[in-house]
Structures are given as structure tokens and as C-alpha cells.
Amino acid sequence: MSRMNTKPNLPEEIMFGRHYSIQANIKANAWAFAAMLLSWAGDLLLLLREDWDVAQRAIIVVVPLLISLLWARSFARWIRGMDEMHRRITLEACLFATSATLFVVTAWHLLDKSGVFQAGSEMTKLRLDSHFHTASFPLSLVLGFYLLGYAMLNRRYQ
Amino acid sequence: MKNKLRELRAAREWSQSDLAEKLGVSRQTVNAIETERYDPSLPLAFKIAQLFKMPIERIFEE
């Protein structure tokens, strides 16, 4: 009978807690950190260099997105290294996160179109509608829903 | 699904970590199978049966 010598990856290794491993986090998320840093640097550059033409600005915006594809590949490899139960929990959490994010973003967009946020902005002096137009809004939602989904699904198997 | 994994493991004086290492899964997965919260896939069930040198149906039952 074949015996596996490698320890399977654990989802908790990339979440802060007692199982957290910086090596595992780098293995799974290094490209995400790189994309995030480049994205911040790009935002700063776009603010400082408003005179640059559209092609240059587009390149600055697109590079972090291309790098995030490398992250998707390394994260998929990380998931493949899990055992079957944790792979199942993680994939279900990913499905929950993307579905919930799609629902919230759609609802937000429809509410925005109906003028709810504009009315709210006028009353509170906060730019509620502007959150929808930033990339960090859906990304934060995906991350938040993933952690929530993972916690709920993981509890089922404890 | 009911199973006899805990008693089979205890009879061999293996810890959950020992069994997990032999099966190439995490300790949490072994615990979830033993407490019948998670039903293993067919390949993993075969692996368990091979490890304990028993037919699958003697380890797992409805």
C-alpha cells in the first residue's frame, strides 16, 4: 500500500491562530501580497502622475490583476495539497464566499441605481455609493465571507 | 455512516495522529471520521480497509 510521506496542508495554517504558519502563508499567498503591494504602489503612482496617458495608466492597473492570476494558481495548488475533508470544506467556503459576494454586490448595485445611497449620502454626508466602485470592496467581501463560511462549515466536522 | 475506526485504532494503540500519518490525512479528518461527522471517500475507505487488512463492509456500515 502506498503511504503518503507529506503532511497535508491545513486551511488553518494561513489563518491567524495556533496552527498559523508563516511558511504556509507565503507558499499559498505570496503572489496575493505582491499584487496588493503593486496595487497600492500603482494607486499612489496614478495620484502623483495624473499627466500619464491612458495606456500607461491601464498598464499600472492591469499588472496587479495579472499577478493575482499567479496567486489563483498557487492557491489552487495549496488546496490540492489538502486532505479530502479540508479540501471539501475550503471549496464549499469558496463557493459560499463567491455566491454571497455576488449577491451583496448585485444588491448594492441595484440599491445604488435606485438612488438609496445618494439619499443616504445627502443625509449623512458620507459617500456610501463610492465603496461600490473600489476593487477593495468586493475583495474584502470575498475574504470576509470566506472566513465566515469556513468557520461555519468547519464546525460541522468538529 | 457508522464505523469501527476508533476501536480498530485503539486495539493497535495508535493515536489519531499516528493513524492520520499512515493514511496521509490530517488528525482532524481522522477525528471527524471516528465521530461519524464525515464520511470518507471510497479511495480513503479502501486505504483504511487495506491498512487494517479488513473488508470495507466490516469497518463501515449504514
Labels describing this entry:
heterodimer, A: mainly alpha, 2 domains, 73% helix, disordered N terminus, B: 62 residues, mainly alpha, 434 Repressor (Amino-terminal Domain), two-stranded antiparallel ribbon
What report would you give on this structure?
The complex is a heterodimer of chains A (158) and B (62). By secondary structure, chain A is mainly alpha-helical. Chain A folds into two domains: 1-82; 83-158, no CATH class. Helices cover 73% and strands 0% of the residues of chain A. Chain A has five helices and no strands. Chain A has helices spanning 22-48, 54-80, 84-114, 116-124, 136-156. Chain A is flat, with a radius of gyration of 19 Å. Chain A starts with 21 loop residues before the first helix and ends with a helix. Mean pLDDT of chain A is 86; it is low at 1-5. Chain B has 62 residues and is mainly alpha-helical. Chain B has one domain (2-54): lambda repressor-like DNA-binding domains (434 Repressor (Amino-terminal Domain), Orthogonal Bundle), CATH 1.10.260.40. Helices cover 61% and strands 6% of the residues of chain B. Chain B is built from five helices and two strands. Chain B has helices at residues 5-11, 16-23, 27-34, 42-52, 56-59; strands at 2-3, 60-61. Chain B has a two-stranded antiparallel sheet. The N and C termini of chain B lie close together (5 Å). The mean pLDDT of chain B is 95. The A-B interface holds A 1, 3-4, 6-8, 10, 83-86, 156-158 and B 21-26, 28-29, 32, 37-38, 40-41, 44, 47, 50-51.
